Amino acid sequence: KPEIELRHALFARGFRYRLHVKSLPGTPDIVLPRWRTVVFVHGCFWHRHTRCRYATTPASNPAFWQAKFAANTARDLRVRRELRQLGWRVHVLWECQIGNQRKLERLAAGLRA
């Protein structure tokens, strides 16, 4: 749902995009080829949004969850680095930020700059 909300907001602002381009590292959620920009919509729980109330750790089997979260964040860093090395601008929006109009306007302004 957060990704769909972002797609609607970008489209309403005149941006055209492609979805889940498999030829790019990490298969970005939204690809804006004209601006050479990719956008990831990260879930706060799975990608460990710092100081977010949704980034909780389950009480059962904590060792498994810590390893899982560490692998996810390491992969996120690697993918962002690879995309930048290929000349792409990378934006990450968190699911808890999607409804924030100020964040969306800042993203749109950054794309047009």
Describe the structure.
This protein has 113 residues and is α+β, with helices and mostly antiparallel strands. The chain is built from four helices and four strands; from the N terminus they run αβββααβα. The chain has helices at 2-12, 44-47, 62-85, 101-112, and strands spanning 18-19, 30-32, 37-42, 89-94. A four-stranded mixed β-sheet has the order 1-2-3-4, sandwiched between helices. Strand 2 (30-32) and strand 3 (37-42) form a beta hairpin. The protein is globular, with a radius of gyration of 15 Å. It starts with a helix and ends with a helix. The mean pLDDT is 91.
Give a quick set of tags describing it.
single chain; 113 residues; alpha+beta; four-stranded mixed beta sheet; globular
Number of helices: 4
Strand content: 15-25%
Q: Ranges with pLDDT <50 over ≥5 residues?
A: none
How far apart are the first and last residues' alpha carbons, in Å? 28 Å
Query: How would a crystallographer describe the biggest sheet?
Result: 4 strands, mixed
Rg, alpha carbons: 15 Å
Q: Give the fraction of residues assigned to helices.
A: 40-55%
Class by alpha and beta content: alpha+beta
Mean pLDDT level:
91
What order do the helices and strands follow? HEEEHHEH
What strand line-up does the widest sheet have?
1-2-3-4
Q: How would the global form be characterised?
A: globular
Count of extended strands: 4
